[in-house]
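Two quick folds needed for the group meeting slides. Do the first one here.
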Amino acid sequence: MQRPIRFTAAGDILITRRLPAAGDSALREAIAASDVRLANLETTITDGTRYASAYSGGTWLTADPGCLADVARLGFNVLGFANNHTMDYSYGGLEDTLRFLRREGIAAAGAGQNLFEAARPAIVETPGGRAAVFAVCATFEDAARAGSQTESMPGRPGLNPLRVQTVYRVARPRAQALREAAARTGVNTLRQAHRSQGFLPPLPEGTMEFGPVLLEEVESEAQEGRFSRADERDVQRTLEGVRRARAACQAVVVLVHSHEIKAACEEEPDYFLEDFARRCIDAGASAVLGSGTHQVQGIEIYNGCPIFYCLGNFFFENDTVEKLPADFLEKYGVSIHASAQEGLRARAAQATASLGARRPVYQTVLPRFSILDGKCAELELLPVDLGLDGPKWEKGVPRLADARAAEEICAYLNRVSAPYGTRWRVQGQAIVQTEGET
């Protein structure tokens, strides 16, 4: 009889400090019970001497190799490395991170020396069969995107991209007013010149631009709004990889890192992400695991397979980054010779809704699920707390949640999962799906 493949999954590992030697033994035991133990690595791993890129994922992130050793001791054996921080420290930072992952015996997915390497899955052999893990990223600077190799040119190191196009639908009368405003201000002049010279493709029929923003004209105000769609080139590359992997593996999982949201609410995944996740399942994936928005989003059970739109933070040590480049310090108005902590304090001082003070940012779940015959055979969620109310030296570090926090996390999860028809309840130390819900 075929044995299921057991998975434990976490969200973003943004770690910047070494863990205590003892660590959280209960958490370590919970992770170690599975065959495939995966998360998103939300920082580069270097010795601190690599050049900072001219751009970053928001904060230039790098951690000492010892931090990665601590992650390995927690039990993780697969890490996605396709996210908005992959190229914070340029090609050298990418190469170092992949090298340290290999040294720790952790399989990596989502980044590589070219697009072929970045797009291929990490493979884990388990007693229940072979598992494939893909990783893609929707939130990135274009310069971070891995490039394809050709007969005459080498590929470009970077991450496995899922490019996203945002479209704003505007009723015709409002579109006409925007055309007139564009003509008066010249906001489209340079792009029109580049388009006439062949440097930009023609606009799709029924669309217009206002600066770099693409607008789609619609008949009525009821049709207006913001929408998004993923680039079919990246979608088809991923779906074909899933199909190939499913032909050779008992389970296929796709990690997606995305900060995009439908509107102003970070609890809602973007339109493209819902569509992309379901298409991955249709192509043969057994589960889709999201990360990026720094708080948990809803869980959908689609054709017998779980979609975790975002698992939020598993480690969140954004306030204890030890080194930051001059670019960051200048941005927040402090001397380039100031410490990283001074720069971080300057950023926090201008914030009106700091991530560091929001409870959903410091609560998450650790899904444990089994895949058998390509479908989810069992699923439970371990509630995890990151110590928002504890001492500063424990803030951002995961531990299994107490009973009060578990109920709080469950109530939040029910709210964000409601659009997908799933309901949850606390059962012992875990959160499980309410019977009768699919």
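Then this one, please, same format:
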Amino acid sequence: MVEKTIAEPSQRESEHDAAVDSNTQPLLTHLIALRNAIIRSLVAMAILFVPYVVFAKQLFALIAMPLVRSLPGSSPETVGTMISTEVAAPFIVPLKLAFFLALITAMPYILHQVWTFISPGLYLREKRFALPLLFSSILLFFGGMVFAYFLVFPLIFQFFAASTPDNVVWMTDINSYLSFIFKLFFAFGIVFEIPVAIVLLTATRLTTIKTLKKGRPYIFVSCFILGMLLTPPDVVSQVLLAIPAWILFELGLILGRVLVRDSEKS
């Protein structure tokens, strides 16, 4: 009875993999499926874009809060003001923000469409491996953005405010600010994907946990180089990116070690 129970997953896996190998479809069928996935993704973004446009001004005020609280003249009762150096910027910038928010919030659905497109060609073991990684990568990317907004932004803007010379008025353009935070959002979102990258590298045997451990000193320096390249030229934001990157690298080593043991046992 025990032998039958253990053999059933292997048999089911073999049957599934054999069905994948025999399921050959013409190129046109794949292109139609890809087109449908793209259309569904664009429709989802358009649906989310509408409410974001309606509340674009309020959303921009919320996204700008970490900066305006650090601007000259701000206090617990009042906040500073930003400027616009372009004629159309007060109209275009909220639209850009709405598009960005629609893209980010639709990303789980977009990735689901990607999954439905590629999953018919994956073996059962690949599906079991890819689906948790897909889910965790989404959570980690959003986690990086939340970390940037609530912890990094207030600290670096306070640092900029304190570093402003006495004879200089720090007035920030709304378009420049939006481009600045987009860069940091994506930087921290990508850095938070380090555990997923390590798991993929070890699972595909491109490298080993032992090799990554030996390269710890180089990776530690690389974290600060990455922080220097992806963040503004200041020490605070560089350190705030490098330290989480290092912690996530160590977390990736732990996860990679556990998954390698599980795969060897199976």
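Slide caption for protein two: Residues 1-8 have pLDDT under 50 and may be disordered.
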